[in-house]
Amino acid sequence: MNVSIEPVTGSPLIKVTLTNNYLSASFYNFGARMHQLFTPNKEGLSENILLSYDSVEELLSDKSYFGAVVGPVAGRIKHAQWKDFPLEKNCGTHHIHGGSQGWSYQFWTIELLEDPDVIGIRFHLEDSVSGYPGPINVRVTYKLVDHSLIMTTDYQSMNPTIVNPTSHSYFNLSGEGQQDLDTHSLLVNASHLLETDKETLPTGKIIPVKELPLDVSKMQSFPAIFSSFKEGLDDCFILNKTLPTALTLTEQTSGRKMEIATTNQSVVLFSTTGFDAPFLINGKPMHSNYGLAIEPQQFPDSVHHPSWPSIELPPLQKRQQETIYRFSCL
Ligand code: GLA
């Protein structure tokens, strides 16, 4: 059990690494982001199972939320408008992922958890720069417990606002990005999917998973997923709350398995389809279908769908969401 803290020379970045007998995870204060996560493969070899920037300069100019906490509100908000309150239009005429000054792009303060039985770190932010009503106080706690990483997000605001944070790690369980998504399989314990329009905004229609071109509530390989969802996945699945595991992802060459449980009502999955970029991720240029962003959250654009669960946060009311990532081998 070990914790290390390394300031990155010549930058405001601080890297924290947590290690227990099974897992090792590193984080940056920039966006309270998870940078790397090492888990053993079926031979016991520990490798990084996230898509991670090779260079600190690229990480500091990130525009795609690699490993970051996204907030105050994840996903798109139509016409960048909540009631009478205008938000930044950073996605055409819409708002996305908390805007250009959102939580992913702020520097958070770091608290190490002192309890001798716990390996953990807590990031704090008082957000008054994203442009949302606030200030919003948020704490993100990451703990390693045996084979699990537990992420807890607590928040409250001085003034009425909206909050729907997520974590935006891209997973590639092959280790060090050796394979692409086509060696992975996925099961989502979902009951429905939110239909989206051409701009990836929810239309309001909710489709039962059994009516999708492929039933992802059963284990499906990515080649099968890509042949049914021609543009890949960039979709919000409503979770079946009667089941303890929200999602299972496996990878055949490494034998790795990840199971996710979350208090959130839905999960957005983004398969990086069409996401080609020159920066290096695990030694390779970023490319289509390289990893799966798994973003547990409440429904996107719910401010425009009054019958959906609300993300409005009254003053001084405390809210919490928790997501547990459990690792094992097949
Ligand atoms: C989410 C969105 C995608 C994309 C990625 C990050 O998954 O739904 O369209 O913006 O974030 O780039």
Automatic annotation (TrEMBL):
One annotated GO molecular function: carbohydrate binding
Gene3D superfamilies named in the record: 2.70.98.10
Transmembrane spans: none
Keyword terms: Carbohydrate metabolism, Isomerase
InterPro entries attached to this UniProt entry: Aldose_1/G6P_1-epimerase (IPR008183), Gal_mutarotase_sf_dom (IPR011013), Galactose_mutarotase-like (IPR047215), GH-type_carb-bd (IPR014718)
A Pfam match: Aldose_epim
Listed GO biological process terms: galactose catabolic process via UDP-galactose, Leloir pathway; glucose metabolic process
Family named by the database record: Belongs to the aldose epimerase family.
Name used for this protein in its record: Type-1 mutarotase
Species annotation: Enterococcus phoeniculicola ATCC BAA-412
Biological classification of the source: Bacteria, Bacillati, Bacillota, Bacilli, Lactobacillales
